[in-house]
Design brief:
Layout: H1 3-14, H2 38-55, H3 58-61, H4 63-67, E1 71-73, H5 82-85, H6 94-119, H7 127-155, H8 188-205, H9 220-233, H10 237-249, H11 259-267, E2 274-276, H12 291-294, E3 305-308, E4 312-314, H13 316-319, H14 327-331, E5 333-336, E6 346-351, E7 356-359, E8 361-364, E9 388-389, H15 390-404, H16 409-417, H17 429-439, H18 446-453, E10 457-458, E11 464-468, E12 476-479, E13 489-490, H19 503-508
Parallel strand pairs: 3-6
Antiparallel strand pairs: 1-4, 2-9, 5-8, 6-7, 7-11, 10-13, 11-12
Helix pairs in contact: 1-6, 2-6, 2-7, 6-7, 7-8, 7-9, 8-9, 9-10, 9-15, 10-15, 15-16, 15-17
Length: 522
């Protein structure tokens, strides 16, 4: 979209980041020979996966939940992502600009590959090669649709049929590889229309690519999962229900049956529920998703104790929303009680700003780090992200059913039973909202959910307890969290629920002048 994006893209085409799909990646490919043979095109696809993985960064997926009502910043925290947590960010915020640039940088890459396969092939493909080219192109359409859906969720208001065709309500639509084109913002209707058209293209080109659990290759099931998500987001509840149930009904994926299986999903990144996750290995590392929640002072090497050293801890109101019988309570959270050993080691927590040990503090342990991705005995906090999970399909089905007069009890109760909870005799929208809050914690959906439901945000009660300088007597009462941002409450429709178009983007693309999101121009 901007000249700098295309400069980055050109460099990526010349020297690919390796995104291992069980194939060797060449060090470089001349730009004018990018489509000269299948090996070159397969290398381009690996670069595209790398782009998509970059777009699914901590800034993109964790930041919306930090902004919402899951966590508080601990006293003395590092201030990483502090502006968004405190709701003091501006259109000059670097983290938000990174999200925008990564998504559009990826879109430019996907456009390049789509066009190249259509018109720049330097060889006559065989029948099997044409099938492979169709599949690659289908994955590019899916990546583009996924990227625009994230842009719409982050940088646009909630979809409303009455206002969706308003000019400048969407994001700029870039569908060709042309650095001279710098379009204005499209309407939100046009953005979602393009997303759904890309989904249809992907569906046709990936028709022979059925998925399997824990796939690291995008496939037809990923297309169906995104379609269900987008249909819910655009208030097409009957179709969202149908698409979610279609994917559930394939029975390719199954909900886990025990707390240990749930722990394995989030620790070892394997589960019968996972529709797609990004590839990761000891050499092609994932992101450190849990680092700011589950950071251990000695990276797990102290034989006597675990000393948790987080920047953010769950709000007490968040922890309290998980019943004791809920398997997620002990998988998503770790209680630092100081008196119950785990693996022969006691668990304590440090309050950074006080240099004190806390008693009875709870930390988020949803992303503890995959031991299979460690290169030494020390923790490195790497887990791979899971953009599509079966649990989300059950939640989409339940929400869409409630809002269209369908059967919401079956999908919601099925999920609840596979999280250790009893069935509900009747299911309301509030029940679905609570279950989604619990299930999707720290997966980047909370801000979008609040917008879709027309709800405000209150951060709520913070954890509190006792601490000591030594980890033993005497203990004294202490506020665990920093006062800054701890008591934020925002009404529905607050302009900061919608992220600003980065000021650097508006400067580079003068078509965007006067098209900033409401409230951000002061």
């Amino acid at each position: 979209m901007k000249n700098k994006i295309y400069t980055i893209l050109f460099a990526a085409v010349v020297c690919f980041a390796s995104c291992n799909l069980d194939k060797e990646s060449p060090d470089s490919i001349p730009f004018d020979k990018a489509f000269s043979d299948m090996g070159s095109i397969e290398a381009l696809e690996r670069g595209a996966y790398s782009r998509l993985r970059t777009a699914y960064s901590i800034s993109s997926m964790i930041l919306p939940d930090l902004q919402a009502d899951y966590v508080h910043a601990i006293s003395g925290f590092s201030n990483t992502y502090g502006n968004v947590y405190q709701w003091t960010f501006s259109q000059d915020d670097g983290d938000i600009a990174t999200v925008w640039n990564d998504l559009y940088g990826g879109i430019a890459f996907y456009n390049f590959i789509i066009e190249g396969i259509d018109s720049k092939l330097g060889f006559e493909p065989t029948a099997s090669e044409q099938t492979a080219l169709n599949n690659i192109q289908g994955r590019m359409y899916l990546m583009r649709a996924l990227s625009y859906s994230l842009l719409a969720e982050r940088f646009c208001g909630d979809y409303d049929a009455a206002t969706a065709k308003n000019e400048y309500s969407g994001v700029p639509l870039v569908t060709t590889y042309d650095s001279s084109k710098k379009p204005a913002r499209a309407s939100l209707y046009d953005v979602y229309d393009k997303i759904l058209k890309d989904i249809e293209q992907a569906k046709q080109l990936l028709a022979d690519q059925n998925g399997s659990p824990n796939s690291t290759t995008l496939n037809l099931d990923c297309v169906l999962a995104l379609e269900a998500r987008v249909l819910l987001q655009t208030d097409n509840y009957p179709e969202a229900l149908k698409k979610a149930n279609d994917l559930i009904g394939k029975q390719t994926y199954t909900l886990i049956d025990s707390e240990e299986e749930l722990r394995e999903m989030w620790t070892y990144d394997r589960s019968p529920e996972t529709i797609f996750q990004f590839y990761a290995s000891k050499t092609e590392t994932a992101y450190q998703w849990g680092y700011y929640f589950y950071n251990e002072y000695n990276n797990g090497t102290d034989n006597k104790q675990y000393t948790m050293y987080p920047d953010y801890i769950p709000a007490q109101g968040c922890v309290d929303r998980y019943d004791a019988a809920d398997w997620r309570r002990t998988v998503y959270f770790l209680d630092c009680t100081t008196d119950a050993p785990v693996d022969g080691r006691f668990i304590v927590a440090i309050i950074k700003g006080q240099s004190m040990f806390a008693r009875n503090l709870t930390v988020i342990s949803k992303y503890p780090g995959n031991p299979d991705l460690r290169t030494t005995s020390a923790w490195n906090y790497y887990n791979t992200f899971k953009p599509f999970r079966l649990a989300e399909m059950y939640l989409i089905a339940a929400e869409a059913a409630v809002l269209s007069g369908g059967d919401a009890e079956t999908p919601l109760n099925e999920l609840r039973m596979h999280r250790g909870l009893p069935k509900l005799p009747a299911v309301t929208l509030a029940d679905v909202q609570e279950e989604r809050y619990r299930e999707m914690m720290m997966e980047g959906t909370r801000l979008t959910d609040l917008k879709r439901w027309g709800l405000g945000m209150t951060r709520g009660k913070a954890q509190e307890g006792e601490a000591s300088k030594t980890g033993g007597n005497p203990w004294s009462y202490i506020d665990f969290v920093t006062e800054i941002g701890s008591d934020i409450s925002k009404p529905k429709g607050d302009y900061m629920f919608v992220w600003p178009i980065p000021a650097s983007e508006i400067f580079a693309n003068q078509q965007l002048g006067g098209q900033q999101n409401p409230g951000w121009v002061r």
